[in-house]
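A sample follows:
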Amino acid sequence: MSDDGEGGRKNLRMPEEDEVFATVTNMLGANRVTVRCADGKERTARIPGKMQKRIWIREDDVVLVEPWDWQDEKADITWRYEKSDADQLRREGHIQ
């Protein structure tokens, strides 16, 4: 294992202009979850088909969501952070 001099800091995927950080608060079933977004809104987010069997999403996971532009209370999940990556985002002040 090599240390890059910053205590193991990794370059993480950051939100693009239409994405926000969110935390999963409730599993609803049927590939849907409730998320609390960094912009203060609570949305129903959809787990897209390409993530369903490959990436397991659980409560308290930190994810990136892309809110729907035609229906603001819904969103699509675009990325899930590992626990260590979420801890790094908290340390760097990107999320609470």
About this structure: The first helix runs from residue 49 to 52. The mean pLDDT is 84.
